[in-house]
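Thread: quick sanity check before group meeting

JM: Hey all, I'm pulling together slides for Thursday and realized we never actually wrote out the predicted structure for the chain we discussed last week. Dropping the sequence here so it's in one place. If anyone has concerns about the input, flag it before I start.
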Amino acid sequence: MVKARPMVFVGCHILESFALLTSALFVAAGAFLAWSFDPAWLNRAGALVIIVGVLLAASRFQEWIQSKFMSFFQANFDSSFDDAIAESVLALTTEEREELKTEVKPLVHKKISEMVEDSKHRLKAWEVWLVVIGTFLSGFGDFIVSVIKTRLP
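JM (edit): ok, ran it. Output follows.
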């Protein structure tokens, strides 16, 4: 039996995808320039990767998405809930509907918050990796290129 994959909102990955792609381009360009011209170009590329990591850390993209989604959730929960109950096979009284609604709303709110927290943790990990890699390249990039160039025939 094939297990269904949970739906993922792709928009929440845009910022980290852009940061990773930009960093990869900086490193590739820096490596090319370091190999072709001056090894210090890899140090400069590392500094740019640090800047990308710091900008990623400074962004409040996840909080913005959470606030937008929560405001949408608050505005549309009642009508969406009523539509879902109307299309279900459940025959509920008005009291039962309201009781179910009061039980479901905090659960949905909690689930949304958990999803955003997971995304924040993933973004934080990428921030740390970008700063660590950028710092390493900034400090040792020229040395690495020089050692490799001297070891090759």
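AS: nice. Helices lie at 14-36, 40-58, 61-87, 94-151. The chain is about 85% helix and 0% strand.
JM: adding both to the slides.
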